[in-house]
Amino acid sequence: MRITRAVVPSLFTTLNMFCGFLSLIFTLEGNYTNAAWFIIIAAIFDSLDGLMARLTKSSSDFGVELDSLADVVSFGVAPSFLIYNIHLQTLGSWGVLISAMPMVMAAMRLARFNVQLIGYDKDYFRGLPTPATAIMIASFILTYYKGTNGLTGFSAEILAPLSVGLSLLMVSTFKYDAAPKFSRRGISQHPWRFALSMLALSAMISSLGQAIFPIFVAYVITGPIRFVVQAVRSALRPAAQREADENDLTSIDV
After folding, report:
1. Can you list the residues of the chain whose pLDDT is less than 70?
2. How is residue 88 annotated by DSSP?
3. How much of the chain is in helix, strand and coil states, percent to nearest 5?
4. What is the DSSP string of 94-134?
5. Are 174 and 229 in contact (CB under 8 A)?
6. What are the residues whose beta carbons fall under 8 Å from the beta carbon of 244, sequence distance 6 or more?
7. Whole-angstrom distance, CA of residue 48 vs CA of residue 63
8. The pLDDT value given to residue 186
9. 68 CB contacts (<8 Å, ≥6 apart)?
10. Would you say 210 and 158 are in contact if contact means Cβ atoms under 8 Å apart?
11. pTM of the complete model
12. Is the CB of residue 220 less than 8 Å from the CB of residue 128?
């Protein structure tokens, strides 16, 4: 029975990797829309393998390592190959280097995650999660790719800086919330996070995927915004404390 339970999440992880492979094939064939969709489908399977591992109570080091290998394929290699073929190849050597960044940084981030892993459930991540990066790239292409016209104008110009920025966010120390656990305990611990996640999921489904890109833009910028807010708070806190201390001394003298 234990072997059977362990196979279930690994099956979803394998489907994740297989979708990444299909994305590579569609990119080779020039079907960039399908290539982008299979990256998003891979992310769905990636979320399901964690859910199945919790439901079957079969989380393991093997599952963590297999998941990381699948993520490198689906959320590292596939997006890098897609953006190179769809536009960045026009930039020559710079295009090769820039398009390789999501793959390289995803591998580095996953390696860092594995060596720092303590327990299998996380409330937040350090650095932008690799699936979020891949979904951002895929949804950007689904939003702005115009078939035979390809990426034009603003969308073509922003692809390179977008890829660089997302790659650097993956290896940053910015804090990002993890998806809420679909359990009574997970909902009670983070009710607002769960409600926002359900609202975002409903929007993505009802819009037939058109809301994916703006929703993930909002998620990506939460990391830098949270960092700035915490930095401002830490800078203002000592000043406020000094002012409070001075007020206390004044009241004593009086």
Report:
1. 1-6, 54-59, 117-122, 181-187, 238-254
2. G
3. 80, 0, 20
4. HHHHHHHHHHHHHHHHHHHHHHT--SS--SEEES--HHHHH
5. no
6. none
7. 13
8. 63
9. 110, 111, 113, 114
10. no
11. 0.84
12. yes
Round to whole Å and give the CA distance between 46 and 10.
10
Q: Is residue 170 a contact partner of residue 128, using CB atoms and an 8 Å limit?
A: yes
pLDDT for res 1? 41
Q: Domains, the chain, ranges and CATH?
A: 2-179+211-216 (1.20.120.1760)
List C-alpha distances in Å: 36 to 31, 115, 198. Answer: 9, 30, 23
- What whole-number distance in Å separates Cα of residue 103 and Cα of residue 116? 20
C-alpha to C-alpha distance for 194 and 134, rounded to whole angstroms: 22
**Main-chain dihedrals φ then ψ at residue 125, nearest 5 degrees:** -120, 150
Decide: 120 and 22 in contact? Cβ < 8 Å. Answer: no
- Which structure tokens are listed for 129? 């999660």
Amino acid 110 reads L
CA atoms within 13 A on the CB side of 18: 7
Residue 107's nearest CA partner among 140, 69, 150, 142 is 69
Q: How far apart are CA 124 and CA 67, in angstroms?
A: 18
- On the CB side of 201, CA atoms within 13 Å amount to 9
Sequence-ordered strand ranges (E) for the chain: 124-126, 175-177
83, 128, 175, 217, 222 from 171: Cα distances, Å: 20, 7, 11, 18, 15
Two structure tokens written together for 35: 């290539």
